[in-house]
């Protein structure tokens, strides 16, 4: 198998592993995960190791820069399975001494010994699924833990020696108010963590919330105000807003997620996992029985075309808070984005939804889209027209990056659709 240009240039790649087991299914969750199927964990890891060995033997001369173990709830799996998995990985491929190795965990599934054991394996970053510090909301969305248990989990992780800890929080939940959300944020800020991901609730198909629509959900305007207030609060406390949904202390950005958002290549292993290698995007089956029978078979493969690469670069780049580096874009795709999309850019700069910057901020990344209704553009554009674009379009010849403003982020899907039309 011929190496991609990316691997040839950098000799580095990233790796995602999906663990589809959990204790219970949250009412908003549409990830491929299963509660009460722990009897299949051993068979799953046999299949997973078979897949990993089949593909990694072809890449023994490259180096892993990041490993991310997600789910599901990876921390419901006994430590011994991960010990065997890491022994396999380290025997097949070089893992950088400076690699970022992340594991997702949930409160109520770990103790101090478990955390110490995974740290000794090399895990050096935790992503903790807290979602809220409001017990009433936690119960309503079917989380297995309380706010007190969430706090205790963070403290246990710190006691075990973890210094790079992220927590996930969700806004727009049923019964949630601006005040209760701010209390959740303020509690998070007392914990000494270095990274916070905040996601707006989106009711997906095949979830409990899609089958039984919850009442008392914040409307789009309330969610917009919550999002803008979140930026204000976290930036005032020293967190860098480096991606639509992510905030970190300096140097604590998620390196693994950067590989997605900067359109780098990565291995994806496990049930429903996606990967991007040799210019091919691929995915594994979402059927657990099929995966256990034939874990090396890809369910989908697509050789990314030049036009698709261009669209992905715009889509991902504009979701970066630092925006699209104009010179890099021209070098990679042979297009001056300022000229090709001049009418679209000028329109949104005049609305205050886009801006040119002469200097890039540190960090990068991308995340989930926020508020995308076309009506939102019409309702907001008059109020913000010209407010944030005054120093932008006339200076485009000297600009370094094209980015969305905070108000533009609220309408990112609508704006991006104009570029991709």
Percentage beta strand: 15-25%
Main pleated-sheet profile: 9 strands, mixed
Using the coordinates shown, work out and report the CATH topology of the largest domain: TIM Barrel
Poorly predicted runs are 1-8, 360-395
**Helix/strand/pairing category:** alpha/beta
The number of helical elements comes to 18
Task: Tell me roughly what share of residues is in helical segments.
Answer: 40-55%
**Total strands:** 17
Q: Per the principal axes of the C-alpha atoms, what is the gross shape?
A: globular
Radius of gyration: 22 Å
> What does the average pLDDT come to?
88
CATH secondary-structure class of the largest domain? Alpha Beta
What's the CATH architecture of the largest domain? Alpha-Beta Barrel
Q: What is the terminal-to-terminal distance?
A: 35 Å
Please indicate the count of domains: 2
CATH superfamily of the largest domain: Aldolase class I
Side by side, the strands of the main sheet go 9-10-8-7-6-5-4-1-11
């Amino acid at each position: 198998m011929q190496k991609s240009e990316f691997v040839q240039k950098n000799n580095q790649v990233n790796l995602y592993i999906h663990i589809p087991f959990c204790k219970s299914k949250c009412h908003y969750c549409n990830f491929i995960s299963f509660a009460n199927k722990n009897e299949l964990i051993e068979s799953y890891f046999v299949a997973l190791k078979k897949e990993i060995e089949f593909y990694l033997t072809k890449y023994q001369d490259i180096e892993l820069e990041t490993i991310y173990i997600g789910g599901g709830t990876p921390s419901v799996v006994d430590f011994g399975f991960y010990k065997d998995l890491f022994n396999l990985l380290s025997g097949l491929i070089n893992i950088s001494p400076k690699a970022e190795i992340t594991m997702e965990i949930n409160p109520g599934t770990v103790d101090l010994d478990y955390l110490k054991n995974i740290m000794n394996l090399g895990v050096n970053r935790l992503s903790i699924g807290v979602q809220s510090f409001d017990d009433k909301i936690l119960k309503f969305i079917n989380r297995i833990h309380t706010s007190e248990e969430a706090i205790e989990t963070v403290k246990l992780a710190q006691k075990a020696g973890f210094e790079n800890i992220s927590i996930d929080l969700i806004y727009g939940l049923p019964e949630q108010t601006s005040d209760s959300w701010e209390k959740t944020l303020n509690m998070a800020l007392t914990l000494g963590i270095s990274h916070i991901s905040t996601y707006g609730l989106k009711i997906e198909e095949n979830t409990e919330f899609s089958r039984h629509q919850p009442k008392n959900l914040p409307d789009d305007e309330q969610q917009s105000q919550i999002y803008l207030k979140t930026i204000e609060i976290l930036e005032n406390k020293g967190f860098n807003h480096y991606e639509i949904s992510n905030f970190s202390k300096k140097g604590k950005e998620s390196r693994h997620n950067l590989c997605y958002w900067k359109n780098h290549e990565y291995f994806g292993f496990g049930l429903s996992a996606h990967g991007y290698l040799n210019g091919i995007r691929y995915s594994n089956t979402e059927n657990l029985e099929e995966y256990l029978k034939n874990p090396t078979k890809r369910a989908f493969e697509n050789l990314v075309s030049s036009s698709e690469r261009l669209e992905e670069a715009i889509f991902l780049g504009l979701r970066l808070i630092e925006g699209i580096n104009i010179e890099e874009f021209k070098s990679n795709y042979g297009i001056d984005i300022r000229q090709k999309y001049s009418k679209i850019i000028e329109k949104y700069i005049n609305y205050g939804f886009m801006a040119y910057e002469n200097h890039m901020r540190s960090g990068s990344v991308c995340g989930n889209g926020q508020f995308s209704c076309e009506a939102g553009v019409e309702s907001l554009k008059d109020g913000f027209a010209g407010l944030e674009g005054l120093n932008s379009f006339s200076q485009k010849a000297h600009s370094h990056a094209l980015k969305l403003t905070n108000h533009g982020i609220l309408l990112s899907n609508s704006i991006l659709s104009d570029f991709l039309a």
